[in-house]
Write a structure and sequence with these properties.
The complex is a heterodimer. Chain A contains two helices and twelve strands. A twelve-stranded mixed sheet of chain A has the order 1-2-3-4-5-6-7-8-9-10-12-11, covered by helices on one side. Chain A is mainly beta. By secondary structure, chain B is an alpha+beta fold. The longest helix of chain B has 14 residues. Chain B starts with a strand and ends with a strand. Classes of the chains: A mainly beta, B alpha+beta. The interface between A and B is medium-sized, with 17 and 16 residues.
Chain lengths: 243, 293
């Protein structure tokens, strides 16, 4: 086990430091998976992540895990309860299938960020590339930059908030997820339409911005709301020739 | 799944380290493509000479072959580099085919040398002593075969023109049709591999007078399928991802180099990587660097 106590730097006071250049990810994750619900080891600091995959995946404990650098695929995947803070960029599928808790990427995220997430909050300070929030099922995703093409594809529930722009085919084949975009949208996907921003939607957006701590910094009036036209929900006889 | 690495140096002080840096990058990408590996290195050139990279069966005595051909040869494992006057290239190729039909010419260039073999990428790099090679830019590939067999000929890079090479992660769906058109235009393809079709397509466009950047732009219209390409020319280095961006790509740039990796993991040992600008190349956007520019 490569754990050491580090108490010299005030930011790291009491943190369990795990050095991924000295021990494999499997060992880190095994230690995190073994944490009991009432653990006192509530702050972990992971150093030398070197773009490795599956860092802090499958954690189910109320702890904070800070990762000092760029991570590879599926960081924070299947997360429950934990707060995973990535001080860098994240590779494909960050917070994939998250159930609860927080994943915060301070840099950019690659494709399929928050894919199939069922709950919790994913915050990306930079940009997210293609298919952000694909098939999201209840997770909330706040991207402070822009998102790539096919974001929120077949998204079922939860909210995707984008402070920048969205790429092509936003919300293609969307179900009931709520999409808020402050900038431009390159194009909307099949069955995704712009919808009226009523008071309840402003309140919902305010709640998400509050969760990220930027409510006062962003003008809610600048956002537009997109959702499902619900025309793909049921078979329509006019489409019979397509089958 | 395959792995791609590429390194284009801006700082000449790094040139002696090119092979060493690339071999580390290639080694990290072993688990994306354990079948076979290859790399092209743009090193020293001599005005008026063309370097032919030859590949022969294990045990080939390249010194004897070079003596027969009357040109200097530098062997490296199953490959060797034969330096011939540019004016004699066609004659040497014809004589080689006549006296040693088992020898393949895998690449030709004023500066490019190209090596590829079946096997674990770290072993392939070690066999060819990649870590000792110097140069201005280099491209490497680790292969997990999908569209054609695991053979040395099917390994990447593919070179279909002087100093040109291409590596590919993905698979093309219209390569048979494009191949027929290229063959009608007189290009000769050596394998059934879809990636060789992409290489030949770019060679054809550049022969028609296009820059590498323009040829890559054109391929967005004519090549169907999924792909991340990294290509090299005598002075240039280009990257293109298909519009859907199925295949991963990460780039890093500092004032000393531009680097490409299928994953960020491949870049972590580059000098100054912590301060590099790291980004994901956008879909359907041509990225192109040229030393002459």
């Amino acid at each position: 086990m490569s754990l050491q106590m580090r108490s010299t730097a005030s930011a790291d006071a009491g943190a369990r430091v795990f050095d991924l250049s000295a021990a494999p990810v499997r060992e880190l994750n095994a230690a995190l998976h073994a944490l009991p619900p009432d653990t006192n080891a509530t702050l972990w600091r992971v150093i030398n992540p070197r773009g490795l995959h599956a860092i802090a995946a499958g954690v189910d404990a109320p702890v904070t895990i800070e990762v000092e650098g760029n991570v590879g695929y599926y960081c924070g995947g299947m997360n429950k309860q934990a707060s995973v803070i990535v001080e860098g960029n994240a590779g494909v599928g960050v917070a994939e299938n998250m159930m609860s808790g927080l994943v915060h990427v301070k840099g950019d995220a690659s494709q399929a960020a928050g894919a199939t997430g069922c709950g919790g909050l994913l915050v990306i300070d930079g940009n997210a590339s293609a298919r952000c929030g694909i098939s999201m099922k209840g997770i909330d995703i706040v991207v402070k930059g822009s998102v790539g093409h096919m974001s929120a594809f077949m998204a079922q529930a939860g909210a995707l908030v984008v402070l920048g722009d969205a790429g092509d085919a936003l919300g293609d084949s969307l179900y009931e997820a709520k999409l808020f975009v402050r900038g431009s949208v390159a194009s909307l996907g099949a069955d995704c339409i712009e919808k009226e921003m009523r008071e309840e939607h402003k309140a919902l957006l305010a709640e998400k911005l509050t969760a990220v701590g930027i409510l006062g910094e962003v003008d809610i009036g600048e956002f537009r709301r997109y959702g499902s036209a619900r025309t793909l929900y049921h078979f329509h006889v006019d489409n019979v020739s397509s089958y | 799944m395959c792995g791609i690495v590429g390194l284009f140096l801006k700082d000449p002080k790094l040139e002696p380290e090119l092979g060493g840096l690339l071999s580390v990058m290639l080694g990290v990408m072993c688990d994306r493509g354990p079948d076979s590996a290859g790399f092209a290195v743009y090193g020293e050139g001599t005005p008026g000479l063309v370097k032919l990279t030859l590949r022969g069966p294990a045990g080939t005595d390249f010194a004897v072959l070079g003596a027969k051909l009357g040109h200097p040869v530098v062997p490296r494992d199953t490959h060797a580099v034969l330096a011939v006057p540019a004016a004699e290239e066609a004659a040497v190729r014809a004589r080689l085919a006549a006296i040693a039909p088992e020898i393949a010419v895998v690449g030709a260039g004023t500066r490019m040398e190209l090596y590829k073999e079946v096997g674990l990428p770290v072993d392939v790099a070690r066999r060819f002593k990649l870590e000792t090679m110097r140069g201005t830019h280099a491209i490497g590939h680790t292969r997990m075969a999908t569209e054609s067999a695991v053979t040395t000929a099917g390994a990447h890079p593919f070179s279909t023109g002087l100093d040109q090479c291409l590596v590919h992660n993905g698979s093309l769906s219209n390569h048979a049709g494009v191949r027929r058109e290229l063959e009608r235009e007189g290009l000769q393809l050596k394998t059934d591999n879809d990636s060789e079709v992409a290489a030949a397509y770019l060679t054809h466009r550049m022969r028609e007078g296009e820059s590498l950047g323009a040829a890559l732009d054109h391929s967005l219209k004519d090549l169907d399928g999924f792909y991340t390409f990294v290509v090299g020319t005598e002075s240039g280095f280009g990257v293109l991802r298909d519009p859907i961006a199925c295949k991963p790509a990460v780039m890093a740039e500092t004032d000393r180099y531009v680097a490409f990796g299928s994953e960020y993991r491949a870049l972590v040992d580059l000098p100054g990587i912590d301060a590099a600008r790291v980004w994901e190349p956008e879909p359907a956007k041509v990225y192109f660097w040229d030393r002459a520019a």
